[in-house]
Specification:
Elements lengths: L1 E7 L5 H19 L9 E2 L17 H9 L6 E3 L11 H10 L7 E3 L8 E5 L7 E5 L9 E5 L1 E3 L3 E3 L1 H9 L2 H8 L5 E2 L9 H5 L5 E3 L3 E3 L9 H5 L5 E2 L7 H13 L5 E6 L21 E5 L2 H16 L8 H9 L7 E5 L1
Parallel strand pairs: 1-16, 2-3, 2-7, 3-4, 7-14
Antiparallel strand pairs: 1-15, 5-6, 8-9, 10-13, 11-12, 14-15
Helix pairs in contact: 1-2, 4-8, 5-8, 8-10, 9-10
Length: 339
């Protein structure tokens, strides 16, 4: 059984959310004897351009101040997105971070300029033998994983597991979860510019009348998606077992790490913070949760959200929890400790 610490904070009181996260983390540290080692990056989501309901950096200030006061170096860390947008490249991603107020710490984009930098983490599970995790994550033993619990059209909900799975994955890893390992060319859009050929390190693309990808050679890095100037190369979003794949990538992301997980159950929108638009909440704010177990913290969040809303919100997201347990990852049995 895992401990999940909880403090109720409502009405968008971001200063109180910051104080609550700090209190809960300090309590966990006291109870578990957790020790920080070396530089400890904070894994966050900066929010897509146009999104207004991501967790703002104000909520993280208490934790950041704690790290500074205890001489623990830190940074914000993230990976580039799979789709084309404001967070496709490291440069534009950092610009969005700055625009959204994430200026308190340096910013690390863990998978390089175009999502091409990754390490293969061996896991030998049902859907993946190995996972493409952003290369810079290998430089650190610990992370503070800050998550926003909300809905997601494909995952059911997004919380700590999805923050690990999608948030730590390089672009090719994101594509592997959403689909297979190969991008596809939409011939009607292709302008035969050849940039994808220049980008491909394994010579998997050739130019006929339009670009053609050899799926036997393609390694699924998805770099061609990032460089295509007209969006002609895309991921196939029709993949199966997405929720189970999230669990396996989350397992790979935390393997060998000693993380603390902090989840904000606020701004409960029906879709994730990658949506570049304003969304209305489907439930009231509840508060902040902290744990050492990402499966337990997700289980606590979905249980309490459904209990307090009186609805089975995001219930299909439980499939990720079920698969996590199947592969020996975490527990859904928890003791809720409310402060």
């Amino acid at each position: 059984m895992a401990n999940v610490y909880f403090k109720r904070v409502v009405n968008k009181d971001y200063a109180a959310l910051s104080d609550a996260a700090l209190l809960l983390m300090e309590t966990l540290i006291k109870d578990t004897g957790h020790k920080f080692k070396g530089r400890v990056p904070i894994k966050v989501h900066f929010g897509e351009k146009g999104n207004q309901t991501f967790v703002p950096p104000t909520c993280y200030l208490g934790v950041i101040d704690y790290l500074r006061e205890n001489s623990i170096p830190s940074a914000y860390i993230e990976t580039n997105v799979l789709y084309r947008g404001a967070r496709t490249t490291a440069e534009s991603h950092k610009e969005i971070a700055k625009a959204h107020g994430f200026t308190q710490l340096p910013v690390i984009i863990a998978d390089g300029h175009l999502g091409e930098a990754f390490d293969e983490i061996q896991i030998d599970k049902e859907f993946f033998k190995s996972c493409k995790i952003g290369k810079a994550f290998s430089d650190y033993e610990q992370f503070i994983v800050m998550s926003h619990f909300k809905g997601h059209g494909a995952a059911g909900f997004g919380g700590a597991l999805k923050q690990l799975a999608m948030g730590f994955a390089a672009r090719g890893g994101k594509m592997a979860q959403h689909a297979g390992i190969n991008p596809v060319v939409k011939a009607s859009r292709c302008i035969a510019c050849g940039l994808c050929i220049e980008k491909c390190d394994v010579n998997a693309i050739e130019m006929q009348e339009k670009a053609v990808i050899d799926h036997d050679k393609c390694v699924g890095c998805a770099g061609c998606i990032a460089v295509c100037p007209v969006g002609a190369i895309q991921s196939d979003w029709t993949g199966k077992n997405f929720k189970e794949k999230i669990s396996e990538y989350a397992y790979a992301a935390q393997l060998g790490k000693d993380n603390i997980y902090i989840t904000y159950l606020i701004n409960v929108t029906p879709e994730c913070d990658c949506m570049g638009q304003h969304m209305h909440a489907v439930a009231e704010d509840i508060g902040v949760f902290v744990s050492k177990d990402p499966v337990a913290i997700d289980a606590a969040c979905i249980d309490i959200l459904q209990k307090e809303s009186g609805e089975k919100l995001f219930d299909d997201g439980r499939e990720s929890i079920v698969h996590a347990l199947k592969i020996g990852f975490g527990t859904d049995q928890y003791q809720l400790i409310e402060l």
